[in-house]
Amino acid sequence: MPAVRSYERFCSQRDFQADRRRPVHDEALMTPEDVVPLHLADVTYPESHPLAGQDGLVLAFAIRHPDGIVLVDTGVGEGNAWVKENYRPRVRDVREALAAAKLDPTAVVAVVNSHLHFDHCGQNRAFPGVPIHVQQAELDLALREGHTVVEWVDFPDARYEAVEGDREIVEGVSVLATPGHTPGHQSVTVRTGDGLVLIVGQAAQDARSFATGPADASIERLREFNADRIHFSHDRAVLRRRK
Q: Domain 14-240 carries which CATH code?
């Protein structure tokens, strides 16, 4: 992997520049280690995919917050014939993954879907009644044929909270609208006592493309945050800002 670029520029958006610098209350102080990657699936990409024939991993992220766990994405679900035939997923139950990380699945107080493709929302139904924060633009696509697995999104006691643009979900944890991969894609920032953590989602496929590849408006915006640690949905690599 090439040397990690030095993210020297800070966010030009005034509200998020202020958000980065505003201290979290002492009782709400988090560390970068409070963003916990969860390996929820492996898939084999089909011929129609740019990565055809390759295996890829699917990550979610549990944020340990004083108010409870904020879960970013829920991996791949079970029981859909099209997904099984085309992607051959090897799935891990999200509740088992949380427990293995010594996190209580019943402590999840909020879910954020970066977007509603099947490998990011597949186990939403494990959290009935828990608010699931999704961009309105993504919810508008959810019932269109081919965008997602509808039964994994639409289930009894599903509680979707529509977001338009950027919003703080709980103190110190914010979603950012980063359209591109899908019209309603969003990324997540976590303010900690040791810098800003960025969960890119799939605004970039991996660390290499984020650090050195061509940038659309969303990737350029995320680079400008100059985050101290940067996580990706389909790459274990964690970018760290040069001090």
A: 3.60.15.10
Contact 37, 236 (CB under 8 A): yes
CB neighbourhood size of 182 (10 A):
22
CA distance linking residue 75 with residue 211, whole number of Å: 25
**Alpha carbon distance 88, 84 (integer Å):** 5
Q: How far apart are CA 130 and CA 134, in angstroms?
A: 13
- The model's pTM is 0.88
- Give the Cα separation of 117 and 54 in Å (integer): 19
DSSP, collapsed to helix, strand or coil, labels residue 13 as: coil
Residue 165 tokens, joined: 């643009």
- b/e per residue, 215-241, with b = 16+ CB within 10 A? eeebbebbbbbbbbbbbbbbbeeebeb
Secondary structure letter of residue 22 according to DSSP: S
Count Cα atoms within 13 angstroms, Cβ side, for 80. Answer: 21
Look at strands 186-192 and 173-177 and give their pairing. antiparallel
Model pLDDT for residues 101-145, shown as the tens digit of each residue: 999 999 999 999 999 999 999 999 999 999 999 999 999 998 777
Tokens of 159: 């509680």
The greatest distance separating any two alpha carbons of the chain, rounded to the nearest whole angstrom, comes to 51
Condensed to tens digits (0 to 9), the pLDDT of residues 14-31 reads: 333 334 444 444 445 899
Domain boundaries, the chain: 14-240
User: For the chain, how many residues are written?
Assistant: 243
Buried b (16+ CB within 10 A) or exposed e, 149-160: beebbeeeeeeb
